[in-house]
Sequence to fold (499 residues):
Amino acid sequence: MRRKTNRLLVALLALVLVIGTLPTMALATNDNHLLDQFEITVDQLPTAENTVADVLGSTVASEYTAAVTYNGGTEDPYYESSQWPLYIFNYNSGNNLSVYDSFTAGESYVFSFMTCLPNGLDIDNTLISADESGNLKLDLPVYINGEPAEQVDILYYPDKDVQIFVNARYTVPETQPPAPPADDTPPADDTPPADDTKEMLKELHINGLALPEDGMTVYLSLTDCGSPELTVTSMAWQEITEDGHLIPMVNTDRFKAGTKYYFTIGLDASEVALDQRSSPAPSSWVAADVYLNGELVYRGDPLWGDGTHLDAYTNSENDNELTLVFSAHFTASPGLPFTDVTEDDYYCEAVKWAYNHEPQVTNGMSETTFGPDLTVTRGQCVTFLWRAMGCPEPASTQNPFADVSESDYYYKAVLWAVENGITNGVDAAHFAPDLTLSTAHIATFLYRTLNPGKDGWNDGKAAVWALQENLLDQTGLTVDPGVDCPRGVVVTFLYRELV
Fold:
């Protein structure tokens, strides 16, 4: 386990890339223009069950301006105001907190930010020291809403543009102060005011998008795409050329394997509240988690995913009309050349994975057929497993089997499977690569692959494990030595357990 001090250093360096929320931070100094202390000002100090949004308060909904001031304020000739990011993470786990994460009583949290040393402001050299790694550190106090931080770690890089990196620790109290007494004064009007508060959008789900495959049309990709939270106003695909230009596509255009594409979807966000960052108009990025077809693809930060964005656009003629736009890059997969595998087959995604996997798990029985209903052989099965595990080189080149030769496609897979205890030969001199296998054999081979050194067959644990992992769902089969295992079921087992 890494030491906490190492996590603090990593978090400080990460601030160069991370854009966070931006509350007020003041650099207080004395009259000699020497840096004297740091002050972090947030809406309120963290309490149990409060979220980061509660603590940052108005700064979350504002333009996130964090003023760095020193030497007496705006009347001083050295006064300056700049914007700096604040980064909050759990001191014990090292995990960064998002806007909607809650604080826990008794837990310690680190407030981190970076800043520059403006012209005209100096540092007292007696406050500079070097640690064991040669990093320069400043011995200066840090305050959070006027309270001294429990532990301070300040790195100083005099030769860099961003020179000062600050970590300040704060522990959430175990007991909270009593809430102020309720105001029982009745309102002047008995009619309760209308609640115009809009619910904050924390998660956005985009479902039904068919990711681009070779030969698929744009229409087929978009026809079932939608969102349960917001109304879709637009959807589009654009081809990304080698020089980075975007070419609009129409419904009848087809995707090409290996080509990159840019997907955008616009949604009406007028009825929800958005946690907008940077400049609020005419556009801004939005802090909300985005799930595409059930998979988390964006976690409230434009730096979180490569080429993935969630942005809000305000209508230039009507500020109340807000459009949320999600965009992402994709590369079209080769798709499937097999005429005996359709999108409705339960094993379709598994076959796609096996065919497009690197290295390729299987290329089918022919150029146009996969043979999903054909019973898998021992040679095929160990080859599937070997390729799915990355084609590891066998440790030994000793081949004890008369029916396995170096020219066979399953040669290395057989040696690898035997030396790893996944399977043995049918006798000391024969592997029987063309012998078909049952569902119990396949479950055992996979169980042994993922649990080195365990048997699974004689103790029956492989069968129990397969049922617990739901490997046979939709197959209509049972784990039984007397039930033949089709090729479609084998790749489904692999896909469900490995992917």
Observations:
- The radius of gyration is 30 Å.
- Confidence is low (pLDDT under 50) at residues 1-24, 58-83, 191-195.
